[in-house]
Design a protein that fits this description.
By secondary structure, this protein is of the alpha+beta class. The protein has one domain: paralog of FGE (formylglycine-generating enzyme). Helix content is 17%, strand content 16%. The protein has four helices and nine strands. It has a three-stranded antiparallel sheet with strand order 1-5-4, with no helix packed on it. A two-stranded antiparallel ribbon has the order 2-3. β8 and β9 form a beta hairpin. The longest helix has 11 residues. The radius of gyration is 16 Å and the shape is globular.
């Protein structure tokens, strides 16, 4: 998941409910987390509420193996059945849990339109070399997918820690690849996601694939 904040005229770091500064990128009226929410951050939220996740209560999260299969012991603390590091992205989190986390720290999940603009259209006033203000790119990291955590051609066999892949459009990480992220939008009873994951190819990270 990734937190969005509807903002106006606020720059720099935004204090969270934990009295810490969360690294966010301000893009006009919106601020969005630079990286995916980490295990450490999500764990603080759960501890403050005295809450366990659905995956923990149900015996494990799911992985797609020709269909969604529950994997015993797979939770946000153990993304693939073994303990994750504090800086790994929080996974096996339901849409409701992601929504509640964002509200707890003073924000909300981004909409699909907000996600698409932040992921593909460079909006910084003075972007670094390689990016051009106002330009919409084919991939969340620019004209080609190199540097994302995808199914082939990268250093990570499964998920990567937050913020270690190639920094992309608007200075954001992992808007494509690595792990799926929840959106605010729903289609009937279906919660929607964006970005693709480490087991997808590059084509699933294009804007048209959302």
């Amino acid at each position: 998941m990734r937190l969005a904040l509807a903002m106006a005229g606020v720059m720099g770091f935004v204090p969270t409910a934990f009295g810490q500064a969360q690294d966010r990128v301000v893009l006009g009226p919106l601020a969005i987390d630079r990286t995916e929410v980490t295990i450490a951050a999500f764990g603080r939220f759960l501890a403050a509420r005295g809450q366990r996740t659905t995956a923990e209560e149900s015996g494990g999260g799911f992985e797609f193996e020709g269909g969604w299969v529950r994997q015993p012991g797979w939770t946000y603390l153990a993304p693939s059945g073994t303990p994750g590091a504090p800086g790994d992205p929080a996974v096996h989190v339901t849409w409701v849990e992601a929504r509640d986390y964002c509200a707890f720290v003073g924000g909300r999940l981004p909409t699909a339109a907000e996600w698409r603009q932040a992921a593909y259209t460079e909006m910084r006033e003075t972007p670094p070399s390689g990016y051009e203000r106002g330009r919409t790119y084919a991939f969340p990291v620019g004209d080609d997918p190199a540097g994302m955590n995808l199914s082939t051609g990268d250093a990570w066999p499964r998920h990567a820690p937050a913020g270690v892949t190639r920094q992309g459009v608007n200075g954001l990480y992992d808007m494509g690849g690595n792990v799926w992220e929840w959106l605010a939008d729903r289609r009937g009873g279906e919660a929607l996601t964006a970005g693709g994951s480490w087991w997808y190819g590059a084509d699933q990270t294009r804007a048209a694939s959302m």
